Amino acid sequence: MWTLGEHLRHTHLKFPKRKFYFQKYLYLLKELKLNAMTSKTFKKQFEEYLPLLSSKQQALVLDMVKSILNIDKDEKHISHKQYNKEIAEAVDRVEDGNFVAHEAAIEELSKVKPMSISKFHEMIDQAKQDHDAGRVISQEELKKKVKTWR
Predict the structure, then answer these.
(1) Mean pLDDT over residues 5-11, rounded?
(2) DSSP 138
(3) What is the C-alpha separation between 110 and 88, in angstroms, rounded?
(4) Which of these, 4, 47, 124, 130, could form a disulfide with 135 (CB 3.0-4.6 Å)?
(5) pLDDT tens for residues 79-108?
(6) CA–CA gap between residue 49 and residue 28 (Å, rounded)
(7) What is the model's pLDDT at position 32?
(8) 3-class DSSP state for residue 37?
(9) Cα–Cα dist 89/87, whole Å
(10) How far, in Å, CA of 63 to CA of 4, rounded?
(11) Residue 40: band (very low, low, confident or very high) from pLDDT cuts 50, 70, 90
(12) Is 28 exposed, middle or buried (0-12, 13-18, 19+ CB in 10 A)?
């Protein structure tokens, strides 16, 4: 498994040093969840990058880690029967032509503009204002709402 630096060099992503530490942390969080990095590797990278963030960003990163660790506690695994049913439904959708080709997805993603750090901070400040004003719902309420979208 590559370290974050090796991955960034391999994929030719050039991050200006100070501007993108937070994005690197988001990448590390994905690594934590998706690739089950060894705790030693993750701890080393975490200790390397955490001091480079502002106090505000450090608090956000730690909140995200806590959230990731608690996110699946009440999730239940599906049965083999349910899994096979979902696979069959997915195959049916593809056979019916209800899919997006890889090239089309790449083309759409290439149109996405990166968010500036000032815009990111603006969105965080707005989220805090919404929270302070009570314009929030619980995670459980959101899960119920999302289930009605299907």
Answers:
(1) 48
(2) -
(3) 31
(4) 130
(5) 889 888 988 998 888 888 888 888 988 998
(6) 10
(7) 57
(8) coil
(9) 5
(10) 21
(11) confident
(12) buried
Residue-level length of the chain: 150
* Cα–Cα distance measured from residue 12 to residue 23, given in angstroms and rounded to the nearest whole number: 15
Distance CA 75, CA 60 (A): 24
> Which tokens go with 106?
């790449």
Please spell the DSSP secondary structure of 40-106, one letter per residue: HHHHHHHHHHGGGS-HHHHHHHHHHHHHHHHTTTT--PPPHHHHHHHHHHHHHHHHTT-S--HHHHH
Cα gap 45→93, rounded to integer Å: 41
Q: Which residue has the higher pLDDT, 63 or 134?
A: 134
Residue linked to tokens 């030693």:
40
SS3 at position 13? coil
Residues 6+ apart with CB under 8 A from 86: 78
Nearest to 60 by CA among 21, 97, 112, 109: 21
pTM (predicted TM-score): 0.30
Interatomic CA distance for residues 121 and 62, integer angstroms? 17
Q: Are 56 and 74 in contact (CB under 8 A)?
A: no
Q: Give the span between the Cα atoms of 106 and 5, in whole angstroms.
A: 24
